[in-house]
Amino acid sequence: MGKFSYSEYRVPRSMSLFVKKIWTLDNLESSSLVLDRFALPNGCFNIAIIRGSGLEITHMESMIHLSPGTYFCGQMTEALGIEIRPNSRATMLQLFPWTPIYFTGLGMDSYADRFCRADGILPDLSVDTNPSNGELCRSIAANWGSLAKSGRPAMDLQHSTSLIMESCGDITIKAVSAEVGCSARYLQKLFKKGLGLTPKKFADIIRLRSIVDKIASSGEGRSDFTGLAIANSFYDQAHFTNAFHAMFKTTPKQFDSKTYFLSYIR
């Protein structure tokens, strides 16, 4: 009898403009239920391909059942709980923040913190419901590039979100606007439509997630939360702890990386 496994797959250069990585929650060969696991906001969208009995998601005090099929996962602003049923697998395409705006005119503000059938949002980006990672990559590389619709909004969103990600969220929105060559008002509208978030909220997610990844990978700041708060532009430890808890539903001191699906591909 198989065991549950979590794995990540680095995508080839031919699809790296739109897809950051593929990650898999594989319980397909196991008869055991996987409980008490969590995922954190990271500023990315996901397409989830569900097989088997499905997943139960706990998010914002609601229970959501993802039955077999393909789902579009909007921007998450809070941690979510994941229960993986026996004989089930979830293959996740992690999309960069700018990916949807290249493929749809729909506003992402309607999809933040939501899970929806993918064919209603990205109907042209069809994917096989039972692919290997290699087959998935070949299909995306062959088809997605020709479907992308470029233009100033898409390029501006890619530029501005990249600046925020590269700075680990420690950049002012004024500085982002100046670098992109646009007004703060234009940036606000662009983020609401393209991400479903304000620029500040996106920067907060990137900043806090960057801190989590540092704690998980190296233990940085684990014994000095005041120093960690100040180093990451929080006013003090209380400000940092409150922001951390609001998004991740735990405190920095109580955070246990073993219960979270955290990336090892940067």
Write up this protein.
- It is a single chain.
- With 266 residues, this protein is α+β, with helices and mostly antiparallel strands.
- The protein folds into 3 domains: 139 residues, Jelly Rolls (Sandwich); 49 residues; 57 residues, Orthogonal Bundle (Arc Repressor Mutant, subunit A), CATH 1.10.10.
- 35% of the residues lie in helices and 22% in strands.
- The protein has 8 helices and 10 strands.
- The strands form 2 sheets. Strands 1-2-9-4-7-10 form a 6-stranded antiparallel sheet, with no helix packed on it.
- Strand 5 and strand 6 form a beta hairpin.
- Helix 3 packs across helix 5 and helix 7 crosses helix 8.
- The longest helix is centred in the last third of the chain and has 20 residues.
- The radius of gyration is 18 Å and the shape is globular.
- The two termini are 32 Å apart.
- The mean pLDDT is 90.
SSE arrangement:
Elements: E1 5-9, E2 19-27, E3 34-39, E4 45-52, E5 55-59, E6 62-66, E7 69-73, E8 80-84, E9 88-95, H1 99-103, E10 115-117, H2 133-147, H3 152-166, H4 173-180, H5 184-194, H6 199-218, H7 225-231, H8 237-248
Antiparallel strand pairs: 1-2, 2-9, 3-8, 4-7, 4-9, 5-6, 5-8, 7-10
What is the compact description of this entry?
This protein has about 270 residues and is of the alpha+beta class. The chain has three domains: about 10-145, Jelly Rolls (Sandwich), CATH 2.60.120; about 150-200; about 205-260, Arc Repressor Mutant, subunit A (Orthogonal Bundle). The chain has helices at about 100-105, 135-145, 150-165, 175-180, 185-195, 200-220, 225-230, 235-250; strands spanning about 5-10, 20-25, 35-40, 45-50, 55-60, 60-65, 70-75, 80-85, 90-95, 115.
